[in-house]
Write a structure and sequence with these properties.
Elements lengths: L3 H7 L28 H17 L15 H12 L3 H13 L8 H10 L4 H10 L3 H13 L7 E4 L2 E4 L4 H16 L1 E4 L2 E4 L7
Antiparallel strand pairs: 1-2, 3-4
């Protein structure tokens, strides 16, 4: 949620596609955190709240205890993407958890939120109850593992990896560097030749 603003600002005016990918920070059976334990309030006080104030983001430590598992919410995201509402779904889930302290581990809560953004509630519920997107979500987690994602947010721009919430300037530089790298590659009859002479046959 904190990275949304810098991401949008960094690509403003550029022909760039932002592709969100799901990642469960604490997947079952790993225990989730409890907001009443000392760790969470301390890290939010020291790091999250100051950054949120700097970025102008209204965010609050959720009071749901223990924090919910998010597998169903992410499977629901797959449903939303298939119906053209992936970004709207992300934004609504962020607000639901980090502004309204809603329990995203409860199916009835997820269905209500899905309906708010225009998804078919009964179809969404059935997809989650039937596990329709379970394997697709597992593939996404394997993809995250292949990219060594261990923290959120992790932003990949070509070969550049940014963990945590980067500045708009850092993101813009990464995007422009990647565009320049791609522009330096010339494809001729399926052969890729780079400006430095590598890769040519």
């Amino acid at each position: 949620m904190l990275a949304e603003g810098p991401l949008e600002e960094a690509v403003e005016g550029l022909d760039v596609e932002i592709e969100w990918k799901p990642f469960e920070l604490r997947a079952e059976p790993k225990a989730t955190l409890r907001p009443e334990d000392p760790y969470l309030p301390e890290i939010w006080k020291r790091a999250v709240y100051p950054m949120a104030r700097r970025l102008g983001v209204d965010i609050t430590l959720p009071t749901v205890s223990p924090q919910p598992y998010t597998r169903l919410a992410f499977e629901g995201w797959q449903f939303a993407v298939e119906h053209g509402l992936g970004d709207a779904y992300n934004h609504r889930m962020f607000r639901a958890f980090f502004q309204e302290s809603l329990d995203l581990g409860r199916l009835d809560v997820l269905v209500g939120l899905a309906e708010e953004i225009g998804l078919d509630g009964p179809a969404y519920r059935k997809a989650l109850e039937d596990g329709t997107y379970y394997e697709r979500h597992q593939d996404a987690l394997r993809d995250a593992e292949a990219h060594r994602v261990q923290a959120v947010p992790t932003i990949l721009v070509g070969d550049t990896r940014l963990e945590g919430v980067p500045s708009t300037a850092q993101l813009r530089k990464a995007v422009l560097d990647e565009r320049a790298r791609l522009a330096a590659s010339v494809t001729v009859e399926g052969v890729v030749c780079r400006a430095d002479g590598t890769g040519c046959a």
